[in-house]
Amino acid sequence: MSSASPPGLPYVDAKTPPVLVLSGPVARDEVPRLSEGVRARLRDSGAGVVVCDVSGLGPPGLTTVDVLARLELAARRAGGRIRLRGPDPALRALLALVGLRFEVERVEVEGQPEQREPPLRVEEAVEPGDPAL
After folding, report:
1. How far apart are CA 49 and CA 18, in angstroms?
2. Distances from the Cα of 47 to the Cαs of 18, 44, 69, 83, 116, in angstroms?
3. 96, containing H or E segment
């Protein structure tokens, strides 16, 4: 036997994801402490995501990639995931190069077009009478 759903939108308890700030060069020996920080934030907040603010990491290297991969693994084992905030373009390129994909927070910058907007000066329609290419 099933009951009808109540009318209207379902109640969703939105949780603000906790933030873990990574600053300066991160060393491999810090992984256990940082992993425990990720697990604790997931456990204490009840959220499924921990935001890792990587804007202050400095120039990326393979150690940074290794640390982020291990933090993601710790989060997945705890039933969650991590999301990167403020990654340097070089870090994003390095992560793509080694085949790691992370969710990245989208930051709205005033005066920048939204991602779904077409670039300027791009013709979207064909005028009648235009020759086919």
Report:
1. 7
2. 8, 8, 20, 12, 28
3. helix 89-98
Quick one: tokens of 80?
């969650």
Tell me, rounded to whole angstroms, the distance of Cα 84 from its chain centroid: 4
End-to-end CA distance of the chain: 61
Low-confidence stretches of the chain (pLDDT beneath 50): 11-13, 113-114
Neighbours of 40 (CB within 10 A): 14
Options 1.10.260.40, 3.40.50.1860, 3.30.750.24, 3.40.50.620; CATH of 19-104: 3.30.750.24
All structural domains of the chain with their residue ranges: 19-104
In the prediction, which pLDDT does 70 show?
96
pLDDT at position 106: 75
Residue 80: per-residue pLDDT: 95
Q: Which two tokens stand for residue 77?
A: 């084992």
Tokens 């935001």 identify what position?
51
